[in-house]
Amino acid sequence: LARYFNPLPRFDIDKASGTCTLHLPKSSPVQTVNVEGEGSILKETVCLKACQELHAIGALTDSLLPELDVPCDEEPDIVVENKIEQPSYFPEEFVDNWRSFSRLGIYYCYKISLEGCPKTASPTDILLALKCDLGSDFTSSSFKLPGGQDNASVTMKYVGIIHLNQEQVIIARRFQTTILSFLIGDDHLEVSNGIKYFHEMQVPIGVVYLLLPLVSGRIDWCSMKFSSSPIYEANNKHMTHCHSCKDIDLLQTKDGPFCRCILKNSIVCTPHNNIFYVISGFLDLDANSCLPQHDGTVVTYKDYFKTRHGLTLTFENQPLLAGSKHVKVRNFLHNCYSKKEKGFFFLWLQ
């Protein structure tokens, strides 16, 4: 059975009662098989029964091989042994196309929480939305972060279904595309192009899911709506403040006025070097504040940016933004990063 199903079947063996339950992947027409017998041969017994049941419904031939859609009239002259490597299995719950996925209306949700993080990190809970539930095995699941500290873990818990219309799915997908493009790439043009062409619904089958940010247990539609109305499009200039913001305190930017509530916890790209920065708040400084230089001299921020970068800070009384460079996500499938690297755990969490 292990030759034809990937991931491998799972055995639940109770030697005390002499019972064994075989759980097959969802791609198998038979999901579970139960047997009773001698403890030393329970695996062999349940596998034999599984083959018999699969054969009975036509899933296996008389030679106990998977039934193929195209019959083979003649036996091959050369016998090729089965390779150990199997095709990568992807759960069918994640497989769909965006066009049909956006029209489902009902989505099954799992809350993903990151616990035991360093004090320097404040992760937000995320809602994973799928076209169907993942089964009883994922009602509640927890696992340690590979390569992280011992107390860092991820918990995924089923929280029920939600109703989303097609517009909400598009907004959520655009937000997701924006964030993932930003985390994976650090080139301004590459990221902006990924966001610009997000709306092209993928007709071919692919991996489809939604990641929805949570704030105080509720989906943060305000942040997602702003991210789904990017400044790259002129017709979205009106999206200048959050609907929950009581007082509109507009600050001028290169792309127009935006409220403090929008700029705080945002991602900005500086025009003089096209570098992305994560904004955490505002400094008690403005364009006329003093900036100490390495040689001991002092200049104003206004003069510094004019001399060094050729930029004119027009609105001199506006507060400067407090920002830091974002951390580019690294591909852990490459498995080539040292655990002893400085700041390793914090970068992994980012």
What does this structure look like?
The protein has 350 residues and is α+β, with helices and mostly antiparallel strands. It has two domains: 1-89, Double Stranded RNA Binding Domain (2-Layer Sandwich), CATH 3.30.160; 94-284 and 319-325, no CATH class. The protein is 21% helix and 25% strand. The chain contains eight helices and 18 strands. It has helices spanning 42-56, 98-101, 166-184, 188-196, 221-227, 260-263, 301-309, 344-349, and strands at 10-14, 19-23, 32-36, 95-96, 106-115, 126-130, 140-144, 153-163, 206-207, 210-215, 218-219, 250-253, 256-259, 267-270, 275-282, 290-292, 298-300, 321-325. The strands form six sheets. The chain has a six-stranded antiparallel beta sheet. Strands 1-2-3 form a three-stranded antiparallel beta sheet, with helices on one face. Helix 3 packs antiparallel against helix 4 (188-196) and helix 3 (166-184) crosses helix 5. The chain is elongated and about 85 Å long. The two termini are 40 Å apart. Mean pLDDT is 75; it is low at 67-80, 230-237 and 337-350. InterPro entries: Dicer_dimer_sf (IPR038248), Dicer_dimerisation (IPR005034), PAZ_dom (IPR003100), PAZ_dom_sf (IPR036085). Residues 246-337 form the PAZ domain. Keywords: Endonuclease, Hydrolase, Magnesium, Metal-binding, Nuclease, Nucleotide-binding, RNA-binding. It holds the Pfam family Dicer_dimer.
Order of helices and strands: EEEHEHEEEEHHEEEHEEHEEEEHEH
Shape: elongated
Structural class computed from helices and strand pairing: alpha+beta
Please estimate the helix content: 10-25%
Number of helices, counting only DSSP H or I runs of 4 residues or more: 8
Strand numbers in spatial order across the main sheet: 7-8-5-6-10-11
- Sheet with most strands: 6 strands, antiparallel
Number of domains: 2
Task: Calculate the mean pLDDT score and round it.
Answer: 75
Total strands: the figure is 18
GO molecular function: metal ion binding; nucleotide binding; RNA binding; RNA endonuclease activity producing 5'-phosphomonoesters, hydrolytic mechanism
Organism: Oryza sativa subsp. japonica (Rice)
Keywords: Endonuclease, Hydrolase, Magnesium, Metal-binding, Nuclease, Nucleotide-binding, RNA-binding
Pfam families: Dicer_dimer, PAZ
